[in-house]
Amino acid sequence: GAAVASRVERGTATYFPRWPSKLSSKLGLISVSPLCRHCLSAQAEAHCLWMNRGISRWVIMLHSFDTYVAVAQGHGPHNPAGRHYAGAKLSLPLQTLEPVRAITGTVAVPMLDFGGPPRNSSWLLGRFRRRAENPVQVLAEIGRGNPEDSSWLNHPGCTLRNPENVVGVLDHYSRSRPGAMDIEAPYELLRVNHYVDTFGERCSSRFAHCETPDDGILWALP
Question: How far is residue 20's CA from residue 66's CA, in Å, rounded to a whole number?
Fold first, then answer.
């Protein structure tokens, strides 16, 4: 669309049209099959990560246009009067991480489901203003990545990756170099809003319903 085209023209975004076909014509056909549209997601993520190695200090993976990064729950830092500055930037947690960046591989970013009764807004961020009380957590044994409930491997969200210290990627997870440190960010500082009801009512059928009001990211709307 026009929004992406303008960013590509300014050099702030890079777009790879029909990316699977650049690997091979067969993979291009596979990627448009209804049964395998996400089969090359790991390769796409790896391409993005390696392309930014030596260029970017951090790479964050957002899997669809229904996911948005929110910093400090959408609020800026408090001023002395106790008010919020709208629009806290990602530089806030990145500055906090900078002293340990050289030894960090993965920063796990919790994901909170948003949905519930839609508001009358043409903007996705304004349409769904209720969320689950806590971040997504895997309960089924078959989907758990660690015996400890507190492990970030049981909290599938998004990952902020240091390209120098990550050797493998797959959707919600990444594998850091041996000896590198993994960190899970508190969702009060950094999180991903996942608007699960974008294409249909899903939050009401999940274990944790979207019932907690949250307008924290609305500052981003025009």
Answer: 22
